[in-house]
Amino acid sequence: MKNENLNQLRNRIDEINLQLLQLLNERTELVEAVGREKDKQGLKKYDPIREQQIIEQLKEKNQGPMSDEMMVHIFKEIFKVSVKLQEEKSHKKGLLVSRKNKSEDTVIEVNGDSIGEGEATFVFGPCSVESQEQMERVAANLAAKGLKYIRGGAFKPRTSPYDFQGLGIEGLKIMSEVAKKYDLRVISEIMDASDLEAALPYLDVVQIGARNMQNFSLLKAVGHINKPVLLKRGLSATIEEFVNAAEYITMHGNPNVMLCERGIRTYEKATRNTLDISAVPILKRETHLPVFVDITHSTGRKDILLPIAKAALAVGADGIMAEVHPNPTVALSDANQQMSLEEFDVFFKNLLS
Ligand SMILES: C=C(O[C@@H]1C=C(C(=O)O)C=C[C@H]1O)C(=O)O
């Protein structure tokens, strides 16, 4: 008789457990839907004010015999697992630039040329656009090698404000004219969002320099243009910060982003920066974006450009950038690290062989 009582009570508990289970699952569905909405609006998953409101409401309605303390304890556990679930779901989806979100490589079209499709892309040119004659000489050399891109700085982020700051829009006009003549595509850095509109007609790819990698208003601005962006890694940026900077651009509507490892700041003085070669396969693994290596700025010395370029391609870089100048000794910027055209000829021949 005693056992029958116990069994009856337990059977009733079993029934209630099933009801609770169903209700908790219904609640979980709603929690997930709230999490998706929060993702869209960029809201935090944990909302202590909302949790407090729920607790107050339940305390008011609680008629016992369960104490408020016990009820609060149970609900706090429910909140805790709900927040965790929302965070896990949103983390799983990953960033837009993440491989988790898109497994295929992003291939970027630049006026009929594809970047990131398997064949390496080479981007060469002087540090700064200085004159029509200078750009002609570089462009003719590139075109003779069958190359498709030319780079050159018009807006220069110089460490010293007294150094050559670039020719600005005039420089871009020179480069664009020369590039048309030799059927080359133009890559150049923009430092200020207010220059974008005037500069875009002369550019095929907009470069965001290392010093502006976390200039979030500039990243948002290039997120709204319809030309590809080459984003350089910041001087002291972690890979995670770099990837998040790329996310800013894609998140604002421009999916055509390329990453460029250009060396990071360390204690080592033998090179201008320390090339983080492992960043290349990590970025290839964690994102679906094309990855470049700037061999000039990462090393700052011409004698190791060839092995560094080979190393970059060997670890999976989609492209190489380097500086080439017809007369490096009189260059208005980076005189020591740019290859002369003769040095460039030897470098390129050896790179391909
Ligand atoms: C479901 C939400 O997310 C979290 C979980 C809550 C819950 O389980 O009720 C309440 C607030 C948030 O910490 C929400 O914000 O409504």
Short description:
It is built from twelve helices and ten strands.
Secondary-structure map:
Elements (H helix, E strand, L loop, with lengths): L1 H40 L6 H14 L6 H26 L14 E3 L2 E3 L5 E5 L6 H13 L4 E3 L17 H13 L3 E5 L6 H4 L5 E4 L7 H8 L5 E4 L6 H13 L5 E5 L17 H8 L4 E4 H5 L5 H10 L4 E5 L17 H12 L1
Parallel strand pairs: 3-10, 4-5, 5-6, 6-7, 7-8, 8-9, 9-10
Antiparallel strand pairs: 1-2
Helix pairs in contact: 1-3, 2-3, 4-5, 7-8, 11-12
The protein binds the ligand C=C(O[C@@H]1C=C(C(=O)O)C=C[C@H]1O)C(=O)O.
Question: Notable features of this structure?
Answer:
eight-stranded parallel sheet, 10 strands, TIM Barrel, Chorismate Mutase Domain, subunit A, binds ligand ISJ, 353 residues
Structure explained in plain terms:
By secondary structure, the chain is of the alpha/beta class. The chain folds into 2 domains: 2-93, Chorismate Mutase Domain, subunit A (Up-down Bundle), CATH 1.20.59.10; 108-352, Aldolase class I (TIM Barrel), CATH 3.20.20.70. It has helices at residues 2-41, 48-61, 68-93, 132-144, 169-181, 196-199, 216-223, 239-251, 279-286, 295-299, 305-314, 341-352; strands at 108-110, 113-115, 121-125, 149-151, 185-189, 205-208, 229-232, 257-261, 291-294, 319-323. Helix 6 (196-199) links the parallel strand 5 (185-189) and strand 6 (205-208). The model has no long low-confidence stretch (mean pLDDT 95). The protein binds the ligand C=C(O[C@@H]1C=C(C(=O)O)C=C[C@H]1O)C(=O)O.
Share in β-strands:
5-15%
**How many distinct domains?**
2
Give the neighbour order of strands across the main sheet.
3-10-9-8-7-6-5-4
Ligand roster: ligand ISJ
Q: Classify the helix fraction into a percent range.
A: 40-55%
Q: Oligomeric state of the chains?
A: single chain
Q: Helix count?
A: 12
- What is the CATH superfamily label of the largest domain? Aldolase class I
